[in-house]
Amino acid sequence: MQNRLRAALSSILSEECLSGRSVDTDRMVLDNPSPTPIEALLKKSGLSELSNEIRLLASRISKVVIFHDKVYHQYYQTILT
Q: What is the pLDDT averaged over residues 49-76?
């Protein structure tokens, strides 16, 4: 279960952080007839019961990652060049 949870969080975070946004858990549509790829992944891995908690955790982690990137982006650019 730990590996399935890690894979689900990894896919959600990569989608959120690469797009530069975080999921707004207050605006999630609960009666969406077409499942997103993330919802399909959670259902396939048997984590659909924990989807709200996983999304909340991913949202909080992505906010920290995006904030960190905004603060230290220039610093990392100077180190890498």
A: 90
Q: Which residue has the tokens 């908690």?
A: 53
Residues 6+ apart with CB under 8 A from 62: 12, 13, 16, 17, 21, 22, 23
Prediction pTM value: 0.63
Helix %, strand %, coil % for the chain, to 5? Answer: 75, 0, 25
CA distance 17 to 58: 10
Residue range 27-44, pLDDT digits in tens = 444 455 566 788 888 888
Q: Dmax of the chain from CA atoms?
A: 48
